[in-house]
Task: structure prediction
Amino acid sequence: VKASGQKPSKGVSIARRQIPAFIVLILVWLFVLVALASPQLVGEPEQKIKTARSMMLAVDISGSMTTSDWKIDDKRVSRWEAVKSVMDEFIQRRQGDRLGLLFFGTQAYLQTPFTLDLEMVNQMLNEVEVGMAGQKTALGNAIGRSIELFEADSVDKKVLILITDGVDSGSEINPVQGARTAALDSIVIYTIGMGDPNAGLFDLDEKTLKLIASETGGKYFRAIDRKELEKVYSTIDQLEPIEYEDESYRPVELLYFWPLSAAFALAIIYQLLAGIITLIKRIRWKNS
Result:
């Protein structure tokens, strides 16, 4: 303009270097580069628990478990109520173990698959009613179903706790033979007989329960009242102490979204401001 001596006509704008736009472009580019670098915030080292064992609780819920010949706090309760009251405490102490819950009567069925969620196991335990699996006591079926569940489990150490107050009846699998098969899969079985077979109120096959336990390297327990049942669970706690592996790790928080968000925000704000300034200039030009 200076060289030619001419003046721009009205309504014509002169192109100038857009320094603010250039600065914004550089900043947006830098923010994008930082986001692509994937910045991370690494926390302090923490311990992560890795379970080392799966434990299946196989409980008899045949009709005889409704017999009310146990006492808790001087109150007469059924055998099933006695088992539940003590098992609740036992489950809560198994932090670090993966627990499963299986019930059996005429048939054996899985109530809870192996899980670290002990609260859920307790809840499912308390929702079951005696007789839901039939009136017989299929010990062999319970052992066979447990073996199937353990085979699908990846943890090496496997423990089965078998609780009953009766004699095997209606099983498709011989209980002792089932125990031998379990031993081949490194499953240790602890058997618990509910009550005193000499009292005349129980039809308890201690001989079979002892054989089942001995075939797998486990142990048989007789529980004649709640205190004895508590001792049984305490003994199992000692025989099978909680085992787990600690894995040290550092929690990592990804931060890439912060510079990326800043880039988008800066670009949008600049475009909005530029649009507003252009609009104001046009209004002034029309009014002049």
Notes: The first helix runs from residue 19 to 36. Residues 31 and 262 are 7 Å apart (CA to CA). Helices lie at 19-36, 79-92, 118-127, 139-151, 175-184, 206-215, 226-239, 257-287. The first strand starts at residue 40 and ends at 42.
